[in-house]
Amino acid sequence: MLALKKVRFDNFDPESVRFMSREIMILRKLEGLITYRLSTSVYLVFEYTEHDIVGLSSCPDIKFSESQVKCYMHQLLFGLEHCHSRGIMHRDIKGSNLLVSDDGALKIADFGLENFVSVGHIQPLTSRVVTLWYRPPELLLGSTSYGQSVDIWSVGCLFC
């Protein structure tokens, strides 16, 4: 089963077009994103995933075993390594952005705040990323010089 995300570029301001274009470019780099352009809209095609970690953990009937938590953490770290090795930091790792299929496969979603990072080439970035509860100290203090460690901090917040 597939999920479609419709993006209409005709009513976006230039800044939004820039962010959406970067998200599409990064998704293509990570997973060979399929896109279709029709008139003034672009359709992004994703694998449909049934759940997210927040929804599952808030369900009173579901209790994660230690082995499930380890499995999800392993998949998340593997996914982040995949991103980071391609020079991409997510910058918004949180439970609602971690999708889980019925067979337990975890996928990282919502690359709207992502950015490219290259070793040795530091560019100023905004500190207004990462949902507050998962934000590392350097971003809370307003730093604009940071790297992929912001994603790792967020993982620690999820699993502690």
UniProtKB/TrEMBL annotation:
> Source organism's superkingdom?
Eukaryota
Which keywords has UniProt assigned to this entry? ATP-binding, Nucleotide-binding
Q: Which GO terms describe its cellular component?
A: cyclin-dependent protein kinase holoenzyme complex; nucleus
Check the record and name the InterPro entries matching this protein: CDK (IPR050108), Kinase-like_dom_sf (IPR011009), Prot_kinase_dom (IPR000719), Ser/Thr_kinase_AS (IPR008271)
Gene3D superfamilies to which the protein is assigned, alphabetical: Phosphorylase Kinase, domain 1, Transferase(Phosphotransferase) domain 1
Single GO biological process annotation from the record: positive regulation of transcription elongation by RNA polymerase II
Keyword Cytoplasm (UniProt) = no
Residues in domain Protein kinase? 1-160
Q: Which GO terms describe its molecular function?
A: ATP binding; RNA polymerase II CTD heptapeptide repeat kinase activity
Q: Which residues form the signal peptide?
A: none
Keyword check for Nucleotide-binding:
yes
| Protein family according to the UniProt entry | Belongs to the protein kinase superfamily. CMGC Ser/Thr protein kinase family. CDC2/CDKX subfamily.
What is the designated name of this protein?
Protein kinase domain-containing protein
- Identify the species of origin: Papaver somniferum
Lineage of the organism: Eukaryota, Viridiplantae, Streptophyta, Embryophyta, Tracheophyta
